[in-house]
Amino acid sequence: MEKTTTPKTNMVFAREVKEGLSAFPKHLSSKYFYDEIGDKLFQQIMALPEYYLTRAEYTIFEQHKSEITASFSTPNVPFNLYELGAGDGTKTKLLLKELLKQKYQFEYRPIDISANALAQLSTSLTNELPNVSVRPIQGTYFDSLKEMGQTQEKKKVILFLGSNIGNLNHKLAVEFLMNIAHILNKDDLFFMGMDQKKHPRTILNAYSDPSGITAAFNKNVLTRINNELGGNFNLDNFIHWESYNPETGTAKSYLVSKIAQEVTIDILEQSFEFDAWETIHTEISQKYDDAMVYQMAEDAGLRVVNQFKDANSTFKNYLFTI
Ligand code: AVI
């Protein structure tokens, strides 16, 4: 999910909090989980035994790196490798190493809203893979997609890993894919990680770990409201709750008010009432199957040309073209 960390986004944050807490049922966007603390909590989540997604995608890359990179291009066709929301690049480095080994001509263009994340990634790449040419782009997905669409340049391969698409509701996910389709030329490719439907218990466990890290991650949106908008949320008055609907494949996170309470947010000059056991919906993490993915692709003007999976089809990476 795209992060929002700049001060200028505070006004947007304030407006969205006002809308979300005035709505019935209440909601807040999971994009506000991510600040310095939220980023660290997400790093911890990715290392949790219950959170299988990151390891599954890493395994796919380890096991299929030569087929994956061969499906991107051939050594004689130069291309730009873009990555939306690059993060720390742990999984991508496996592909970068393989591309170097196979003598592909490419430039790696990680995109992230956080200048700090990009600087750290560039430094680690310079140390670990000094032969990779790296040219980061700092900005939102939206701005960078627009820029990519305007530049007529060499072939593009765009990575969007980690099932980040699952944090968008269906309508926004299809709109996002339409934007991707719009900027792809004939030979360009889009490579996306999508978590798969599986035993509901496995999914629930991944989002409600007993160590409480996911709960702290979910509650970080309240901490941010307290710190950035002058809120007085008492975090102990809320519990993290996860649900999974195996029919739709939708996992949803909530914060549930344990008591009837009133919370004040200074910047908004407003108070919000909570009944006992009232919910704030904070995140959706959609799980997919092939039928859904092919339908979404068709609706967005994309075509699935290849897919890679781990042994149990826990997670899949799909390759799309227009
Ligand atoms: C970033 N995103 C794909 C994660 C997910 O699985 O939905 C965020 C997350 N939320 C709770 N745990 C991890």
Offer a few descriptive terms.
14 strands; 10 helices; globular; 322 residues; binds N,N-dimethyl-L-histidine
3D architecture notes:
This protein starts with 9 loop residues before the first helix and ends with a strand. The chain is α/β, with parallel strands linked by helices and 322 residues long. The strands form three sheets. Strands 2, 3, 4, 5, 6, 7, 13 and 14 form an eight-stranded mixed sheet that branches. Strands 1-12-9-8 form a four-stranded mixed sheet. The chain is 40% helix and 25% strand. Helix 7 crosses helix 10. It contains ten helices and 14 strands. The structure holds N,N-dimethyl-L-histidine.
End-to-end distance, in Å? 24 Å
Taking all residues together, what is the mean pLDDT?
94
Radius of gyration of CA atoms, rounded to a whole number: 20 Å
Shape: globular
Share of helix, binned = 40-55%
Secondary-structure element pattern, one letter each: HEHHEHEHEEHEHEHHEEEEEHEE
Uncertain ranges: none
Number of separate helices: 10
Strand-residue fraction?
Answer: 15-25%
Which structural class do the helices and strands define? Answer: alpha/beta
- State the total count of DSSP E strands: 14
The small-molecule ligands in this entry are: N,N-dimethyl-L-histidine
Strand count, sense and barrel status of the largest sheet are: 8 strands, mixed
Keywords: Methyltransferase, Transferase
Domain Histidine-specific methyltransferase SAM-dependent: 13-320
GO molecular function, one term: methyltransferase activity
Protein name: L-histidine N(Alpha)-methyltransferase
